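task queued by scheduler; priority normal; single chain, no ligands, no partner chains; default sampling; output format set to structure tokens
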Amino acid sequence: MGLLLFSVILLITFLSTQTLYAQHKFVFEQPKMGSPFTISIFAKDSAKAAQAATTAFHCADSLNQIFSDYLDSSELNRLNATSGQNRYVPVSAAMFDILKYAVDAAKKSKGSYDISMGPVVKLWRKARKEKKLPGKDSLQSALQKTGYQFIHLDSAHQSVWLEKKGMQLDLGGLGKGYVAQAALDIIQDMGFPSSMVNAGGKIAIGEAPPGRNGWRIGITLPEEKEKIMQRLLLLSNTSVATSGDIYQHLDINGKRYSHIVDPKTGLGLTSQRNVTVIAQNGVISDWLATACSVLSIDESFKLIKAFNGAALLVTEMNNGRLIKKSTKNFEGYLEN
């Protein structure tokens, strides 16, 4: 009887200890950068999780003040205003860091991702608002102000020279991934390794939730806002980004033009393709998803191979049929 009582006490003590140290999932969401910004944290203390999320949200706001081309007072717009002045301009550490990523992305993608496309992107924003295509002359004029080769970085002095007059940098296709990764890094530094940040579909992922093999993430289907593929991704300590045109496009005479612009032609893409990329951090997966939307599938596969562990899935609707093509390693990231 004594042994049984002792065993019961041990069991109760064990269960109480498990409950005391159990981690729960806390989810926080705010609108940031024109999209829902969702933070998921596994923690024992809801107040501490909320504090970490608040700090991460403040980080997102601060970076948006630097990177946004919608805010007249942003550092990016102040930098753009110096284009063609034949001088280097000192910039913040965050601005210089993201520009290094962006110029490297342009080089590695052979210009399929190019942050100098700001003048062209603004034409397409206006086109979607007015529901008419940009004029050919306007497009040609805007294209003449582009070219990542005319962005010069001086690491020694943390400064930037925009050589062409009228250049306008646009950090779309890279900025949200950068902010998501920065927010995740802050949360993990505050003691929450099992966390995830979703910045409008650009997702930075920390350690797996307690007792699980990874975070379960759905992949949207082409032309669908709500439906996802049957098999989910199971990810940890990585990032994933999906690029598509379901939310931003222009329909003219039965033809859909994406918000993603081909830097070579200045035209919105018309392929109606969804691209999902898994890569080591949020910045890289974000720009790779954009570049692989522009490149052919064969060129996209070649680009992805240059990044250790990166994987690619391309889905397209063709005459009502879903066509899927992926790198060989993509299957390994899917839930069984």
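post-processing summary
- The mean pLDDT is 89.
- The chain has three domains: 25-69+171-200, 86-162, 213-336.
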